[in-house]
């Protein structure tokens, strides 16, 4: 390893440069930061960090900073230095740590001056020549400058024009023979084309962007009047993004950069609050927010963003700016008004929302023309191992699955939801066995390679495809941007093969994915679209949460016909005869629904170590003892083998104790999997993988370096990229991002390894040694993978490392991790489980924080708030209180309006026992009163759970009607407000 040290020392008077006090901020006390600044510790840390979003989300700057030897252009450096200056100004304003920050700002100012001296007024001159077909564009510019015809601050277009007229001489040039052709080209270039080329060359953009605009004469007038459309269109169309800041440097007059060649009207921008510039910032914010999951942003949040952008120039945004400039801004966006706020949305995503809403509602409300009839009851019973007619859980599980199958048969669009183990696979297998369905044909689609393999295993007759494979085959995928797209000839390319479409793991699909997918199907020839998934898992990486929104829209819809288009499987098939699963009981707390009444017992069981055999919990204090805790858990929890070493135990757990068997069945490598929320900290996958390599022992002669990792023979690995790749036997195969395998062969001298992947038995794929940047790698170690990577997969035994800190933690992330295990889950929780309980709350939902507009407009006021969305978030009148159900909203609001003090889901302890009631009160004597709302008594498992909890309450002195009160939802889901009012009256007398 090479160790680099910077030349900036603590004694800043003796060093040149700047050093942001990141580590000093990290060591600050949270309460101290709040008291000094009124902000959270994470907020002030974010304010002093130089990040890609602060640099305008520039792909160009990202690429320049991603490689150690990459050239950073002067324009990029100027943007970076300006952001650095702003970060240091934040350090001064915070006043949290000492330091000579003004000296560092002075140094930055001196560097800004130096960079400006090196920048000319037309930095993309050569790129512009290249865009119109001049082969030696960069050499021509160099020759003009080297021969003194054009200085740094001069206009190279004047010199080039003279060269084309023969007024300048460049003897012995390599392009001498082509000058005649260039002169003809230039002579026939129209004046407005030259004007556009000159304008485009003011910005540090490449020839592809310049050529796109040069070849669009219909846009010339708009471009000359508003050059910021270069940024807007590049961001909206997702090609070679150009930032607002890059345009600023070309059309805001600055003689230090442009000399005497400052821009002129109409392109000139004289004010930082010019509406052309502000609209560009708005587009930039809306596009950047898509990657965070938001399809629209409140006007207030946009104004806060613009104010932050203007702060560097010490300018304010005028009052009511967005409404005052609405007509101009609406040329590129849509203004949406709800009851309490205004929001802005890109036109493309308004169109996507409108289209999906129409398709989803239209198909969910219609039956197929020829409903299918099968004896599903008999088929499902036969598919459940150990089915017992006398077991009420068995009967109810069958009823749920039969309901799902009947829904599949009758609905043009249906939704099947449910956590792992509830029988979704059984339902799909049964459906695909129907002779009529076989005759009609079924298209099986999944978002990931692993999910595709699993879906494909549901039928021997049908080959499942990833969505990317299907869209590529139909011509609806852009490999340049690696995104789904709708081609101009979409009507000719629509899929019209099978009559049924099943899409699995739908929670991973963005609204754009769904939109393009629906556009790629010839819907008039599709009988059934079946969407399967778990709406409580991690939301998609990208805009929206369409599956969760559809799930919530259908499940509580007032229209019974729409409500019948969804089935949620509620009974865990694999535990029907063995009782409740501790894994799924714990996971239910992190779902978006109210858990069973007795499920709070799980926290006490974890604390006391009194768990069933499918869940084990270990705790660790800090990074210093994580390794020992991890090792202890592996030694104790993996299958015992007399006299076997830790290395042997690990090898056996991933099926690599017998390589020949693993070659024939590489899926064995997925029997045991470690998960972590992140890659890089000490508790991340990178470090954990290094521990495993240490424990299994690696032979350096049978290893190769694929920087920054080393892989060895029999290492567990994961594919990081979707690609077609030839095996060593020259057979071309599809490898999927997330596909797990093992290293079959590695040789240091040959600098070569071969890997075998799950789903591709006895096929070997070659990988070669590389010292290049890890961004180029297509393979990584996989003893431990991130929770995000595990989505769409499941494993026999899963070990999850959960650190107490980490911004990435969310309710959905934890739920996804907990539901990856088929048989056994091992949790390694930092400190104890008490902090984990906080993540069960609705406020910790990353899914709910997204702004969407699919079935109703859900938009937060600002980044720190959670938007209200029907079915996902239940807000109350009590400030800051969010509850888990609509019925609890009614109760909480009535209590608040009557002035009765209460706590929601407060853990109480009595005689060493713990429980979490819905509402807790203190009476006049100081004794505790409890209120439980019973939402699903029609569900036998829920009813049984409540009866157990009621018995527990009785054992510690809580008697119904005295100090324990209950209300119920009726069969149709309604709640009687008079029943609630009667209990509130009693509480008023007691409290």
From TrEMBL:
It comes from the Bacteria. One of its GO terms (molecular function) is DNA helicase activity. The keyword Cytoplasm does not apply. InterPro entries: Coronavir_polyprotein_1ab, P-loop_NTPase, UvrD-like_helicase_C. Residues 781-828 form the UvrD-like helicase C-terminal domain. Keywords: ATP-binding, Nucleotide-binding. Transmembrane segments: none annotated. Pfam families: AAA_30 (PF13604), UvrD_C_2 (PF13538). This is UvrD-like helicase C-terminal domain-containing protein. It comes from Phocaeicola vulgatus (Bacteroides vulgatus).
């Amino acid at each position: 390893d090479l160790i680099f040290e910077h030349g900036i020392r603590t004694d800043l008077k003796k060093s040149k440069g700047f050093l942001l006090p990141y580590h000093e901020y990290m060591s600050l006390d949270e309460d101290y930061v709040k008291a000094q600044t009124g902000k959270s510790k994470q907020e002030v840390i974010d304010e002093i960090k130089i990040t890609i979003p602060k640099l305008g989300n520039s792909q160009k700057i990202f690429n320049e900073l991603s490689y150690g030897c990459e050239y950073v252009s002067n324009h990029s450096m100027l943007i970076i230095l300006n952001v650095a200056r702003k970060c240091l100004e934040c350090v001064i304003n915070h006043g949290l740590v000492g330091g000579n920050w003004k000296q560092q700002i002075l140094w930055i100012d001196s560097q800004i001056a130096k960079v400006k001296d090196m920048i000319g007024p037309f930095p993309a001159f050569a790129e512009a020549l290249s865009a119109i077909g001049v082969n030696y564009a960069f050499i021509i510019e160099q020759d003009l400058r080297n021969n003194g015809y054009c200085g740094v601050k001069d206009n190279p277009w004047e010199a080039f024009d003279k060269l084309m007229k023969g007024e300048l001489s460049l003897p012995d040039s390599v392009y001498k023979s082509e000058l005649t052709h260039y002169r003809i080209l230039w002579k026939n270039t129209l004046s407005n084309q030259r004007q556009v080329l000159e304008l485009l060359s003011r910005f540090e953009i490449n020839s592809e962007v310049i050529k796109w605009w040069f070849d669009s004469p219909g846009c010339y007038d708009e471009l000359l009047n508003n050059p910021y459309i270069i940024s807007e269109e590049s961001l909206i169309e997702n090609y070679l993004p150009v930032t607002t800041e890059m345009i600023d440097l070309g059309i805001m007059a600055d003689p230090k950069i442009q000399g005497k060649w400052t821009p002129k009207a109409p392109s000139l921008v004289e004010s930082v609050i010019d509406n052309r510039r502000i609209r560009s910032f708005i587009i930039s914010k809306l596009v950047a927010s898509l990657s965070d999951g938001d399809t629209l942003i409140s006007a207030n949040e946009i104004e806060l963003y613009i104010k932050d952008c203007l702060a560097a120039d010490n300018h304010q945004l005028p009052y009511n700016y967005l409404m005052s400039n609405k007509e101009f801004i609406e040329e590129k966006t849509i203004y949406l008004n709800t009851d309490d706020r205004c929001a802005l949305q890109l036109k493309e995503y308004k169109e996507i929302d409108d289209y999906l809403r129409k398709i989803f509602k239209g198909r969910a409300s219609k039956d197929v023309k020829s409903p299918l009839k099968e004896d599903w009851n008999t088929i499902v019973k036969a598919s459940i191992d150990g089915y017992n007619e006398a077991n009420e859980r068995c009967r109810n599980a069958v009823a749920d699955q039969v309901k799902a199958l009947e829904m599949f048969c009758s609905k043009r669009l249906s939704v099947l939801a449910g956590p792992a183990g509830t029988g979704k696979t059984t339902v799909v297998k049964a459906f695909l066995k129907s002779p009529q369905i076989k005759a009609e044909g079924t298209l099986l689609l999944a978002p990931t390679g692993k999910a595709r393999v699993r879906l494909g295993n549901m039928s021997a007759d049908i080959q499942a495809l990833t969505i990317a494979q299907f869209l590529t085959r139909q011509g609806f995928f852009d490999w340049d941007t690696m995104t789904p797209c709708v081609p101009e000839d979409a009507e000719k390319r629509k899929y019209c093969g099978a009559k049924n479409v099943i899409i699995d793991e739908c929670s991973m699909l963005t609204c754009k994915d769904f939109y393009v997918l629906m556009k790629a199907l010839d819907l008039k020839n599709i009988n059934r679209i079946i969407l399967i998934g778990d709406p409580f898992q991690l939301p998609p990486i990208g805009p929206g949460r369409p599956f969760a929104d559809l799930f919530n829209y259908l499940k509580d819809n007032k229209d019974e016909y729409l409500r019948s288009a969804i089935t949620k499987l509620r009974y865990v098939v694999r535990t029907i005869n063995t009782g409740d699963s501790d894994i799924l009981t714990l996971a239910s707390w992190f779902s978006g629904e109210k858990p069973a009444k007795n499920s709070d017992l799980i926290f006490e069981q974890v604390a006391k170590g009194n768990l069933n055999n499918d869940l084990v919990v270990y705790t660790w204090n800090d990074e210093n003892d994580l390794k020992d805790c991890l090792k202890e858990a592996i030694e104790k929890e993996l299958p015992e083998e007399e006299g076997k070493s830790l290395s042997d135990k690990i090898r056996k757990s991933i099926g690599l104790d017998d390589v020949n068997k693993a070659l024939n069945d590489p899926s064995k490598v997925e029997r045991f999997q470690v998960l972590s929320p992140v890659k890089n900290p000490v508790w991340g996958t990178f470090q954990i993988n290094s521990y495993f390599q240490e424990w299994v022992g690696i032979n350096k002669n049978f290893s190769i370096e694929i920087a920054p990792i080393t892989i060895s023979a029999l290492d567990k690995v994961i594919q990081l990229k979707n690609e077609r790749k030839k095996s060593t036997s020259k057979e071309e195969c599809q490898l999927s991002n997330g596909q797990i395998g093992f290293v079959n062969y590695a040789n240091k001298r040959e600098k070569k390894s071969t890997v075998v992947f799950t789903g591709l038995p006895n096929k070997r794929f070659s990988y070669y040694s590389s010292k290049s940047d890890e961004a180029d790698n297509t393979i990584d170690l996989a003893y431990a993978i991130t929770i995000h990577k595990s989505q769409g997969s499941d494993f026999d035994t899963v070990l999850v490392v959960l650190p107490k800190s980490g911004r990435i933690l969310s309710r959905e992330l934890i739920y996804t991790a907990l539901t990856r295990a088929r048989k056994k889950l091992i949790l390694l929780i930092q400190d104890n489980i008490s902090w984990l309980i906080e993540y069960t709350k609705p406020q910790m939902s990353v899914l709910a924080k997204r702004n969407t507009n699919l079935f109703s407009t859900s938009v937060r006021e600002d980044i720190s708030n959670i938007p209200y969305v029907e079915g996902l978030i239940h807000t109350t009148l009590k400030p800051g209180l969010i509850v888990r159900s609509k019925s609890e909203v009614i109760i909480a609001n009535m209590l608040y309006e009557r002035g009765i003090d209460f706590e929601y889901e407060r853990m109480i302890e009595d005689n060493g026992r713990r429980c979490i009631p819905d509402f807790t009160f203190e009476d006049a004597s100081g004794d505790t009163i409890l209120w439980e709302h019973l939402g699903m008594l029609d569900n036998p498992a829920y009813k049984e759970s409540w009866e157990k909890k009621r018995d527990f309450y009785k054992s510690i002195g809580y008697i119904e009607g005295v100090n324990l009160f209950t209300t119920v939802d009726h069969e149709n889901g309604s709640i009687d407000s008079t029943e609630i009012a009667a209990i509130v009256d009693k509480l008023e007398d007691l409290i």
